[in-house]
Amino acid sequence: MLHHERKARKAGFTCIAGIDEVGRGPLAGPVVAASLVLRDEVFTHRIDDSKKLTPRARSLAYREIIEKAWIGIGIVSEGLIDRINIYNATVIAMEMAIRDLSVRPDFLLIDGRLNLKSTCKKSCIIKGDSKSLSIACASIIAKVTRDSIMLGYHEKYPQYGFARNKGYGTKEHIKSLNKYGPSPIHRLSFNPVRRLVASSS
To answer: Distance (Å, rounded) from C-alpha 102 to C-alpha 163?
Structure first.
């Protein structure tokens, strides 16, 4: 998981940031990105793509990561996602996360193929959260952060089951959406929310 970090260091870079996002697919809530620069690359707990970890494993990894990395977070709301589309919103969230770092990276390891405006040298890695330790750590930070946001929204809008589905389009969520209509945090540009709004107008 350190191949890409070592390759960047061999090329002369010293402050390498991993970047990932969570929340491109849900029907509700923000997209959240995390960037981080590791101070320590030795972990006691399992570090992997956040989707491959249980909630407990993610929580344990999260606590260890925040002790061993400089971290930046970027959050883009559902309203802006609707206005500029999810790709552009994801790019903005990632750029926000980089700016939020307390250190200035000189090389970026980015999960997926996203064209960030940062002037840093960068490498885009498909499925990077399974190939780079820095990106995997960023994916865990982003996932835990977004899940916490959605738990807060569950308290405000309990009828949608956000504590369980985190805004993703589960059968339970779709059923609640059809029954109650969209909440203020639903993405109106995403189907089936868009179809529901169109049919009721």
So the answer is: 31
DSSP string, 83-145: HH-HHHHHHHHHHHHHHT-SS--SEEEEESS------SEEEEETTGGGT-HHHHHHHHHHHHH
Q: Cα-flanking dihedrals φ and ψ of residue 94, to 5°? A: -65, -40
Does residue 132 contact residue 47 with C-beta atoms inside 8 Å?
Answer: no
**Structure-token pair, residue 173:** 């969520």
Per DSSP, 71 falls in state: E
Residue whose structure tokens are 């203020």:
184
Say which residue the tokens 């995997």 belong to: 136
pLDDT of the residue at 117? 87
Q: Partners of 16 in the beta sheet?
A: 107
192-to-63, 75, 167 alpha-carbon distances in Å: 36, 23, 13
SS3 186: strand
What is the reported pLDDT for 110? Answer: 97
- pTM of structure: 0.95
Which helix (H) or strand (E) segment holds residue 170: the answer is none
Please say whether the beta carbons of 17 and 98 come within 8 A: yes
What is d(CA 146, CA 201) in angstroms, rounded to the nearest whole number? 31
Domains and CATH numbers, the chain: 3-146 (3.30.420.10)
